[in-house]
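Hi again,

Forgot to attach this to my earlier email, sorry! This is the prediction with iron/sulfur cluster bound. I've pasted everything inline since the attachment limit keeps bouncing my files.
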Amino acid sequence: MRLFSNRARPVHLGPHPVERLPRSPIPSAPPEAWHGRAFASSGGLERPEALPGLRSSVERYAALFSALRNGETADAQAAIPSDVQERSNNLKAQCSFVDADLAGIASIPDSAWAEGRRIHGHNLVLVVAIQWPRLPRAGDPGETWLHDARGAVAEMRAAEVAAVMAHYIRQLGFGAVGHAAGETDLDIPLLAILSGLAEVDAHGALSHPYLGSAYSCAAVSTEMELAPDQPLAPIGGGDRWRVRGLSWFFGWGGTRPGWSRLNGEHRPLHWGPYPMERIKRTESPTTLLTDKIPRVPKRAAFFARALAGDLGPKAQKERARFATKTPNVLAMVPLIRAMVPHQHGPVASDPTPDTDDPDWNADCVKAAAYFLGADMVGISKAPDFAWYSHDDDGSEITPNHRFAITMLIDQGHETMEGASGDDWISGAQSMRAYMRGSEIAGILAEHLRGLGHDARSQTNADSQVLQIPLILLAGLGEMSRIGELVLNPFVGPRFKSVVVTTNLPLTPDKPIDFGLQDFCEKCLKCARECPCHAIPFGPKVMFNGYETWKPDAEKCARYRVTNPKGSACGRCMKTCPYNLEGLLSERLVLWAAINLPFTRKWLAILDDKLGRGLRNKIKRWWWDLEIVDGRAVPPRLGTNERDLNFANILKPEDEKIAHYPADMNPSPDQQDPLPPDRKEGLRRAKEAETPEAALHRLRT
Ligand code: SF4
Ligand code: SF4
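Structure tokens for the complex follow:
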């Protein structure tokens, strides 16, 4: 939670107020004292023998990312600005987008190259820093799993960012190579000093005024011309408080506060950063689930249908590239693909002793997920209806795990503020969350298997489960008007989910009720702002056993896949009043929305009056580029430039929403294209059962 908004802070400056730190000019040759330094090592406690830790799984993922540090460079340079400062700002903003805590740029002196490893033409380096995650308090759940993995997690994340950034720069047509601990040609600590990401203290240790000494760095060497930063001016330890000041402590200007309480560090780690414990819990979800929810094959999902040609040749062609048609997205794809084979694997033969207490296990799992970077975690049973019936290849899926650990990854408020929701950054927002989710779930699942309990990560790239019912059952949100989206009180619809299914004994959480059904009744904003009128203005209906505002999934998928002036779409997410920045003032409004039902209609109106949902130009950090024939070029058909469209309201009787319930699905192994029967879909929507009728039917 922050006290001050960051709406006037450009994204390339990052979360810490680095621009306020004094710098010294770059010396012609680095001082001798700067050589031979190293970042602090993991710093864990002595490892108790009782349980294995998470560290080996983290290190395996770090090795996966480090192996992706180099690759092909696009054969033509993208049409990007020639101004080196603009280029540097773009790279730093992309670092911030993928959650680097700091980013700096330096020229590479000869002495920074390992002997014989100099890469011809690579004269500049982008250095990134990742802060070590917080450990559970002594004796708290998860301590024995995590205590020695702090440095390893930060090193893995730094390797991830370096691989992504190197791939991004290569997509722009410039040579670039990532360098991370264990797989580097460069003296990374020296370059961290030169780029202003570290200083040498009186004891010869490396540290930073905002991060202390608990952080890890990685680097990307490149031939792209950039504007180097200056090293930090020497600051005596006693002067740190003076240099950082009260503005840093309270987060003036929207920077990350130095006051640890505002960052939630007073809370037990397994509670997570958001006060979900204050949200009312219920025995069942706030929307009806009948006992007749059919299982569906993966072939029935509209993205799969587009790929199979059900939506026509144009959608089929675009489906193959829709999520990867910008360099920002493409930068993350190799990492996502590399993680897929590790989603499942061998299970240790005997369950580790002391892993039979479901309450304790649940808290340990949550602590581990937060430690790895999840924004929200909930646990539920994994009922049969949450499993797909058949896989992509038509083979049957047998539900084989009893529990689901569901995690939400925030797609990021800052970039969302700059975007229309359906311009050229939308796909990258999704992909970043998918990448991070795959990493967290993959490591967690591998760790649980190491404890002797079968577990599989269920990611966007390969999932055997439907995530919506699991988010709902895990108490992470309520069904919203957006329809195929469960909305969370603190991050709204602005997240992607990832799941670990497992047989580790766990205590499930309960569903939540924060008044969203009433709020969405009174607020039509997502329906009004959807570019293709896929979200209904009318009431909820029953669909495949769920009470829901049923969107037109065909229209939504077709728009996202074929969007000619952007990459994918998340405009409903952008414009929803629950798309919050995370400020104290917003918490007060949220409290009113939850506890004072009469305010809901007025809050929805106020949201519009305040212009929330408009684009904030200061946050627009990315370049509009489209990948065409392997090259990043200016978008051929331009860019969606949308703000709010107050007049775009339809009467429910005038809208054309089609429903395709389970009995209209293609068969699991349908090979040939099978166009959806839209006429029948429209008829089914008109005749959909109301929740009241379903309830009456179930009671009689
Ligand atoms: Fe509409 Fe875009 Fe949301 Fe789909 S993702 S419902 S097209 S706003
Ligand atoms: Fe509900 Fe309004 Fe958000 Fe749509 S925009 S999901 S109606 S709160």
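Residues 426-450 form the longest helix (25 residues). Residues 530-532, 534-535, 551, 556, 559-560, 569-572 surround iron/sulfur cluster (ligand 1) (CB under 6 Å).

That should be everything now.

G.
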